[in-house]
Queue: 2 jobs
Job 1
Amino acid sequence: MELIIARVKQGDMVAFNALIDEHKAMAFTLAIKLLKNREDAEEVTQDAFVKAYKNISQFEGKSKFSTWLYTIVYNTALTRLRKKQISMQELDSHTVENSVEASESSASWNTLRKDERSSYIQQALHRLVEEDQVVITLFYLNENSLVEICEITGWELSNVKVRLHRARKRLLAQLEKLLDTEVRSLL
């Protein structure tokens, strides 16, 4: 990775395209979780990569490149939200399967096919506030560490831990509501 970044710093577009290919899916995922709009997320992702290219000389390697890039994506998306005066919603976590297994609905949860579980997780995730969605996405989907999430969002470590814990609980509650509604509709 360091070699590729060094080549990008020298203006090598082929190397930069390799960085884009490696990180575009997660950058887009983060943007869409924040913006809730495909076109805006695509624009923000593209803008973030342009900003990253223009400012690559500022990347010192003190953190992972992905952390640095996701910080740009996150801040670009927040700027877009502010300009549109859209209120932020919380993002939630993906370890829902572990939490759900401990709940009363675990038997019905375990009988669902993987694609059905994924659908319910996405539905429940969309019911959460944006900050919950962000912390869940960064931690479980992007697999960022707590420290990296602090760097990306500007939140304190204790705040990230609390948000992640609470987001998991809210996600579980939303999943239980969805599953309960689904079971009642079958009866």
Job 2
Amino acid sequence: METTLSPKKRYRHHFAKHEIPKSLIYEMYDGRPMYYKGYKDVMNHLKSTEEILGQSDIQGIIVNVILRYLMRNIDDEKYFAMSNETGFHLSKNNNISSDIVIFDKETLKNRENKGKYFDIPPLAVIEIDIEADAKDFGLSEFDYYSMKTKSLLDFGVKEIFWFFSASKQVAIARPNQDWIIANWDKELVVLGEYKFSLEKLLEKEGFKL
């Protein structure tokens, strides 16, 4: 017997570009929008916008643990760390965002603030998991990670750290060096002088992920 979905549960699979709110755009590559994971659920009225834009519990803990370490340890006369999806304008029609970034403070102070995305590269970027709907963009998550990492390096970022909660691994990328993938227990060196492993930071704060 054939069954049909009730109107409230029926899925819509195709959306015209003008139908998708700009608030669901996560990043922009060559003028093409990349949406947040779960944006189709929002369009199908299965989730609210807030549900897909907010960090998961694991992401929130990791971001906070790393940010607390940075705030306590880095030289705040030299460096300025910030979080909350900091946006970057890489070039025309290319805009991306990052979870944690560390700027050279003097460079930041001398920049004219315009109320727009940053157009200068930070020294370091730290990402936690992938929040973009890479599949809808025609990419695997690995391809997306590679594309975004390369874009950040080309922009002038000196080091990029990606923490993946499912595999409990971290990927490290620096200009003109092989990219490295290691477990969370690896001691990382940030800005050439600050050392930490995510596993030990989590243990110190009493979290088990």
